[in-house]
TrEMBL record:
Keywords: Repeat, Transport. This is ABC transporter domain-containing protein. The keyword Transit peptide does not apply. The lineage of its organism: Eukaryota, Metazoa, Spiralia, Gnathifera, Rotifera. One of its GO terms (cellular component) is membrane. Residues 73-239 form the ABC transporter domain. It comes from Adineta steineri.
Length: 239
């Protein structure tokens, strides 16, 4: 009973990071059933985009917005306030599969705040985010199966080796044992840490730790990978 109560309290009050559920979330149909974006929603949004893009200038790329397909990730009128400070203001973006997109801005522009909202670590003040057609607030547990995330700061265990970090995350993602070994080998080669696979993270350089954090985000081949300043401190040969 205490365990169930603890899970319930954690869902409605996750603390500083996390998306809280309403107190009656267990009695809502949306919690027990999945909802995805309908093709008609994509077509309606496409009409709006086409109208707005008719007057677009040469700074705007129009290749992908002309395709009638569901975005891998969609941000719709996103706002985030901390007290009176507006960290994110009315942000709307669509990201499509196979594309690499970058958020550029000065310090305090809201880039990290936006990424925290995308991965479900912060709740938006208003607006919504959908990933693979699912709302990242009401369906955050399902959304995280499709997400890989590398935060701005490395979150590593001092006493675990490079390979042990990758194995830990792979097991948390319930990967098949054979596929897990193959995937880890591929990632070790990709991040250039094959020869350091047995080195504890506390003995790695700053750049090597950063590469490990990137490798962790790639475990289980996620559909959407979100990286916050991934190349900070990494040598030019690995960028």
């Amino acid at each position: 009973i205490y365990m169930l109560l603890a899970v319930y309290v954690e869902r409605i009050n996750p603390g500083e990071f996390g998306v809280s559920q309403p107190w009656n979330y267990l009695f809502k149909k949306s919690y027990w059933t999945s909802s995805t974006i309908r093709p008609s929603d994509v077509e309606n949004n496409l009409d709006i985009v086409n109208d707005r893009s008719s007057n677009a200038n040469h700074w705007i790329e129009l290749n992908t917005i002309g395709k009638k397909k569901t975005p891998a990730m969609s941000i719709d009128h996103l706002n985030k306030k901390f007290g009176k400070f507006q960290a994110v203001s009315n942000l709307s973006l669509d990201f499509y599969e196979g594309e690499v997109c970058t958020l550029l801005g000065h310090n305090g522009a809201g880039k990290t705040t936006t990424t925290f909202i995308l991965v479900g670590m912060l709740e938006p003040t208003s607006g919504q985010v959908t990933i693979q057609g699912m709302n990242n607030q009401s369906q955050i547990e399902e959304v995280r199966h499709y997400l890989g995330f590398c935060p701005q700061y490395d979150i590593l265990y001092d006493e675990l080796s490079v390979e042990e970090h990758l194995e830990l995350i792979a097991k948390m993602r319930h990967m098949n044992k054979e596929f897990m070994k193959e995937s880890i080998e591929t990632i070790l080669q990709l991040i250039g840490l094959t020869n350091d696979r047995n080195t504890c993270s506390k003995d790695l350089s700053g750049g090597m730790k950063r590469r490990l954090s990137i490798g962790i985000s790639l475990i289980n081949n996620p559909k959407v990978v979100i990286l916050d300043e991934p190349t900070s401190g990494i040598g030019k040969n690995f960028k």
